[in-house]
Design brief:
This protein is mainly α. It has 20 helices and three strands. The protein starts with a helix and ends with a helix. The structure holds zinc ion.
Length: about 500
């Protein structure tokens, strides 16, 4: 038995090494590589992905995992969980022909450059052919699994186990019914809180503030860095090398600040996974919904609270002196202005989920054959008009704004909405244990990080989202707290 386990450990080590190499290539491609390098790097990513695929689908390795699974009662907790996860992963991956797997990996690596080029030209048509291919591959890969379940629901499950379109349809419907009337009330008030926080700030100052804020939250720069990219993201080479990006826009100085806080939430999670999991496949987030709960928690519940600004305003003034003439309340209201806007990552908390709905309905429509990729700009604009009452003037403001589809992340967007729901449940539980408001006012963000670390981060993938959330809150995912939170917060801001 122990012999099998040690062979297993060797194989996992190899697999993790390949994943780290892939992460480094991906990092280079998205942050530094010149356009001329895209093609070769994409090929390298394709080749290395194939190696990782071959390792996972190798007959002897599968047999080994299956044997360990049969004897799982004699494995320790960590090994058992790894084997259970691998059994499911292998099931999904082994049905894909190897050449298709490699081509798809290469395609998604290449697609990001094409997406960027389409953005430069503000023309979706440049991106459409490759996007079509990505969607087709995803449909095909799901079909290979040979399950009866709805195609899109199966994709959703890859990011959040147990999720399906019935649950999400119900969730979004509820949310729409609660948010839209509140939005209408707010709109009637025609208040402008944002005018006061509109100013220009140099990229240099924004960069310095991003670093400061990440340190303030507890991100460890001995084990992480922050850089720049078209679309902010977090990438983990391993738990001692966690890399974040943000994006600096001189006329929107709060954009980089909140992107950095968001990615910081992801980064702190990755850095907080317990050391004993480092050499295992469990050194990862529990699910994408839980991952986004951490980033959205830091970004909104912490970062957009009045207490946070009480604790930090004088420090932020060192970088953004324009804030000196404003009160904490004015900054707080400014950053929480409700606005029917075009760009998801800039959206306020109230309208944010409507942005997710647009993407959810589009993905569902394409995966189930209702929509065509070519018609996406038009469908996108119609849905934005319907839910948010705004219309993009070009594709960059519309269908080309998110990087996700170019990376093959289809079914990912609902993770943000789930993350919002989880984040409020987590917040409610945290308040019972520690004085969150006091910690924010005193700048003791470490207390918050430690609580999250103990309850969520350290477990990595060892616990499922359900186990984590029930353990913390005593109940499973429940959107009522999130809806209540939004109502209370915005009724207070808008009287
Ligand atoms: Zn995120």
């Amino acid at each position: 038995m122990r012999d099998k386990v040690s062979i297993f450990r060797e194989k996992i080590k190899e697999k993790k090494m390949l994943d780290s190499m892939l992460a480094l290539l991906q990092w280079d491609l998205e942050t530094q590589a010149p356009k001329g390098g895209y093609e070769l790097i994409s090929k390298m990513i394709g080749d290395l992905s194939l190696k990782s695929y071959e390792l996972t689908t190798n007959k002897e390795f599968i047999k080994l995992v299956e044997n360990l699974y049969k004897e799982k009662e004699s494995l320790d907790e960590i090994e058992r969980k790894e084997v259970e996860i691998l059994i499911e992963d292998i099931e999904k991956i082994k049905v894909i022909p190897s050449d298709e797997y490699r081509l798809y990996s290469e395609l998604t690596a290449k697609a990001q450059g094409i997406w960027e080029h389409a953005r430069e030209k503000k023309d979706f048509k440049i991106f459409a052919p490759v996007l079509k291919e990505i969607f087709e591959y995803n449909k095909k890969f799901i079909k290979y699994r040979g399950k009866d379940e709805d195609v899109y629901s199966q994709l959703l499950c890859d990011y959040e186990k147990g999720m399906n379109i019935e649950k999400l349809d119900k969730f979004f419907e509820e949310l729409k019914n609660e948010i839209v009337p509140l939005l209408k009330e707010i709109e009637l008030q025609k208040r402008d809180f944002q005018g006061k926080i509109k100013f220009q700030e140099s990229k240099e100052k924004q960069k310095e503030l991003s670093k400061f804020i990440l340190k303030y939250l507890g991100f460890d720069f001995q084990r992480g860095i922050i850089s720049e990219s078209t679309h902010p993201f977090t990438l983990t080479v391993n738990r001692n090398d966690v890399r974040l990006t943000t994006k600096y826009i001189e006329e929107l100085p709060f954009s980089s600040l909140y992107s950095s806080i968001h990615e910081g939430g992801h980064g702190i999670y990755e850095q907080g996974v317990e050391n004993v999991l480092e050499e295992t496949i469990l050194a990862d987030g529990s699910s994408m919904g839980i991952h986004e709960s951490q980033s959205r928690f830091y970004e909104n519940i912490i970062g957009r609270s009045e207490e946070f600004w009480s604790g930090i305003k004088d420090k932020v003034e060192n970088y953004y002196p324009n804030l000196k003439k404003l009160s904490v309340k004015e900054v707080y209201k400014g950053i929480n202005q409700v606005e029917k806007s075009l760009i998801r990552v800039e959206a306020d908390e109230l309208t944010y989920s409507l942005h997710i709905m647009v993407r959810y309905e589009i993905e569902k429509g394409i995966m189930n054959g209702k929509y065509n990729v070519d018609e996406l700009p038009q469908i996108w604009n119609e849905k934005m008009m319907e839910y948010l009452g705004v219309e993009p003037k070009d594709d960059v403001e519309g269908v080309l704004q998110d990087v996700h589809w170019s990376c093959g992340l289809i079914g990912y967007f609902p993770s943000y909405a789930l993350g919002n729901v989880y984040s409020v449940q987590i917040y409610e539980a945290m308040k019972k244990d520690i004085n969150v408001e006091g910690a924010l006012e005193r700048g003791e963000l470490i207390k918050i990080k430690e609580w999250l670390g103990e309850k969520i981060h350290k477990y990595g993938k060892l616990k499922t989202p359900k186990e984590i959330i029930i353990n913390i809150c005593g109940e499973d995912l429940n959107s009522k707290y999130y809806i209540e939170y939004l109502k209370n917060k915005y009724r207070e801001i808008y009287n």
